[in-house]
């Protein structure tokens, strides 16, 4: 009789546990980045940032609308290819995700944003800086970094005013990001009283830059701006050295990674590269970023490459809006997220303007000494 009673108790406990789990709210958050191809290290860095946030949220036992939320990460690879980016965007829509963090590149983020907008799914990019992304009129598009107008403009002014550049060359990779940031850089150079001595372009898969660098060398440049990613900038620095081009290289956040010195194969001189990361923390906020970097390394065994903290913040901003709205339904939490004002993240304070851009976005200028990336200053 006692055994039968124990069995009944065990069965009842299982039923109660099942009922409790059935009442849990499953929240699916999509993440998209290039986890294959030349910048897979950056895509994986982004995905790790998302995974870290999801794991912490599940450990905290977050409740939304009175129900315990179980967060699931649906991670997809777009290989930095616009067609593949659109394909995985449709896949996430079909999977009924509650929101999307990504994509990494402007060239994949912009076409994918149309798909998410049509489905009413909120999207926060942690790294796409092309201004067009938030200027399409989509209410679902947000970003947590400053755009290319700010980034390219700051570097253009820096090249003329701080570096006193007399002969400035511009090279871009013809992607939405690379070309966009290069154009904003050139505009700022001219507005600051400088001039562009040479304009060249390559592509994001190129490995041989002899022709364009030979053309650049003829202008005797003291500054070379490259609009693109570190996978191309590294080999370009090697070939600049081989051709005897001793100019400073400036670039946006795409080259501003901890992997750049390795990709350059020892060809970088100290302080030769100056880059701007779309984001930045100052004063007491540095402690939060340092703690994040330490926790990231402990969890994954590697250093943060670049965007992981922004992905981490993007996930948490989205979930904070769900909690405040009492619902993970995009229709309910999207208007709440749009009004995000003063969220304290590891990357700084996050507030969105009417376009979905971050207000008062910061930039951090860096250089390299040996293999170490060194901060110059934070600019707003």
UniProtKB/TrEMBL annotation:
<dbReference type="InterPro" id="IPR000709">
    <property type="entry name" value="Leu_Ile_Val-bd"/>
</dbReference>
<protein>
    <submittedName>
        <fullName>Branched-chain amino acid ABC transporter substrate-binding protein</fullName>
    </submittedName>
</protein>
<keyword id="KW-0029">Amino-acid transport</keyword>
<feature type="signal peptide">
    <location>
        <begin position="1"/>
        <end position="22"/>
    </location>
</feature>
<dbReference type="Pfam" id="PF13458">
    <property type="entry name" value="Peripla_BP_6"/>
</dbReference>
<dbReference type="InterPro" id="IPR028081">
    <property type="entry name" value="Leu-bd"/>
</dbReference>
<dbReference type="GO" id="GO:0006865">
    <property type="term" value="P:amino acid transport"/>
</dbReference>
<dbReference type="InterPro" id="IPR028082">
    <property type="entry name" value="Peripla_BP_I"/>
</dbReference>
<feature type="domain" description="Leucine-binding protein">
    <location>
        <begin position="27"/>
        <end position="367"/>
    </location>
</feature>
<keyword id="KW-0732">Signal</keyword>
<keyword id="KW-0813">Transport</keyword>
<comment type="similarity">
    <text>Belongs to the leucine-binding protein family.</text>
</comment>
């Amino acid at each position: 009789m006692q055994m039968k009673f124990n069995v009944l108790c065990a069965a009842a406990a299982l039923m109660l546990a099942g009922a409790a789990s059935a009442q849990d709210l499953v929240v699916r958050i999509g993440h998209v980045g290039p986890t294959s191809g030349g910048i897979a290290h950056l895509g994986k860095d982004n995905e790790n940032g998302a995974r870290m946030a999801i794991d912490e949220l599940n450990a905290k036992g977050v409740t939304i609308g009175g129900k315990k939320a179980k967060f699931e990460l649906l991670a997809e690879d777009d290989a930095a290819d616009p067609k593949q980016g659109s394909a995985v965007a449709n896949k996430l829509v079909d999977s009924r995700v509650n929101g999307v963090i990504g994509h990494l590149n402007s060239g994949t983020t912009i076409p994918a944003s149309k798909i998410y907008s049509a489905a009413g799914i909120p999207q926060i990019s942690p790294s796409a800086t092309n201004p067009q992304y938030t200027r399409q009129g989509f209410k679902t598009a947000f970003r947590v970094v400053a755009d290319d107008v700010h980034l390219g403009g700051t570097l253009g002014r820096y090249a003329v005013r701080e570096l006193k550049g007399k002969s400035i060359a511009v090279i871009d990779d013809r992607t939405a990001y690379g070309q966009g940031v290069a154009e904003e850089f050139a505009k700022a150079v001219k507005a600051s009283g400088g001039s562009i001595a040479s304009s060249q372009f390559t592509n994001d898969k190129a490995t041989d830059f002899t022709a364009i660098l030979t053309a650049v060398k003829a202008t005797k440049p003291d500054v070379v701006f490259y609009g693109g990613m570190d996978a191309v900038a590294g080999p370009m620095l090697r070939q600049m050295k081989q051709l005897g081009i001793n100019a400073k290289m400036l670039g946006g956040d795409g080259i501003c990674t901890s992997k750049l010195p390795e990709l350059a194969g020892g060809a970088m001189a100290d302080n030769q590269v100056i880059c701007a990361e779309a984001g930045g923390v100052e004063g007491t906020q540095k402690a939060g970023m340092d703690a994040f970097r330490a926790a990231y390394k402990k969890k994954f065994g590697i250093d943060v490459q670049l965007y992981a903290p922004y992905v981490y913040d993007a996930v948490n901003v989205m979930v904070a809006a769900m909690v405040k709205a009492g619902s993970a339904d995009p229709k309910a939490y999207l208007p709440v997220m749009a009004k995000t004002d003063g969220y304290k993240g590891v990357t700084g304070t996050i507030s969105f303007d009417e376009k979905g851009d971050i207000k008062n976005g910061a930039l951090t200028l860096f250089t390299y000494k040996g293999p170490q990336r060194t901060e110059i200053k934070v600019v707003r």
